[in-house]
Amino acid sequence: MKILVVNPNTSPEMTADIGRAAKKYARGDTEVVTVCPSWGPRSIEGHFEEALAATATVETIAASRDDYDGFVVACYGDPGLAAAREVTQVPVVGIAEASMLMACTVAHTFSIVTVLPRIVPMLHDLVRTNGLEPRLASVRATPLSVLQIEEDPGRAEKEIVAAGRRAIEEDGAEAICLGCAGMGPLDKAVQRALGVPVFDGVAAAVKMLESLADYGVTTSKVAAYRDPEPKELVNCSPALQGAAR
């Protein structure tokens, strides 16, 4: 199968790291292409940036909707995920949803370890949207910005391990979800340090897409993710215009 992994921010360094993580866990017969939008925020650390990135992500997927067997939204806020499912006929998987669902198969509770404290309320909202509040032990922040993870992986690993240990010892977490796509390359090092399952959302999303393809299912188009209603979209890009056909 052929998968397009979309990094919703515009950091080329993070996009390259996400691509390496996706290819590391993909099967040998899975082709992985990784891109980021041509416009939008360099990193996503708040509602404003997430809103911009969501539109850019949907536009990127809409432009390639007929070219791939599945899409990954590779930001832990899953920006634009529901809309992206409307504009294509193949599965679209968000890394947050994938990692949380996968964690629930091997642990009674999970915690998310993420970047700056301002992200914590956003992730609580996301967990609630996915109906997984009863399984959430906590959302733990680090002092790291998204781009600092790329700049200093050694420090990032220490901060993630420290936050993960607090989640296990103080909050009762039995698994850890890495709440930023840039944390993905550290998954196994963090898992060794903590001794519990640790999930990189990019890896989880790629494996979930492969499983959906193997099982022969795709996005339901009965209600929530029906194609967009045909209508005029004023001054929108050709890709978005084509989605509302």
List the helices and strands and how they pair.
Blueprint: E1 2-6, H1 12-25, E2 31-35, H2 47-63, E3 70-73, H3 81-86, E4 92-94, H4 95-104, E5 110-113, H5 120-129, E6 136-140, H6 146-151, H7 153-171, E7 176-178, H8 187-194, E8 198-200, H9 201-215, H10 238-243
Parallel strand pairs: 1-2, 1-3, 3-4, 5-6, 5-7, 7-8
Concise synopsis of the structure shown:
With 245 residues, the chain is of the alpha/beta class.
Could you explain the architecture of this structure?
The chain has 245 residues and is of the alpha/beta class. It folds into two domains: 135 residues, 3-Layer(aba) Sandwich (Rossmann fold); 104 residues, Rossmann fold. The chain contains ten helices and eight strands. The protein is globular and about 55 Å long. The mean pLDDT is 96.
Report Rg. Answer: 17 Å
Assign the CATH class of the largest domain.
Answer: Alpha Beta
Judged by helices, strands and strand pairing, the structural class is: alpha/beta
Detail the poorly predicted runs: none
CATH T-level topology of the largest domain:
Rossmann fold
How many helices? The count is 10
Strand content: 5-15%
What's the N-to-C terminus distance? 26 Å
Quick one: biggest sheet? Answer: 4 strands, parallel
Kindly report the spatial arrangement of strands forming the biggest sheet: 2-1-3-4
How helix-rich are the residues, as a percent range?
40-55%
Mean pLDDT: 96
Number of domains: 2
Quick one: how many beta strands?
Answer: 8
**Overall outline:** globular
Spell out the helices and strands N to C: EHEHEHEHEHEHHEHEHH
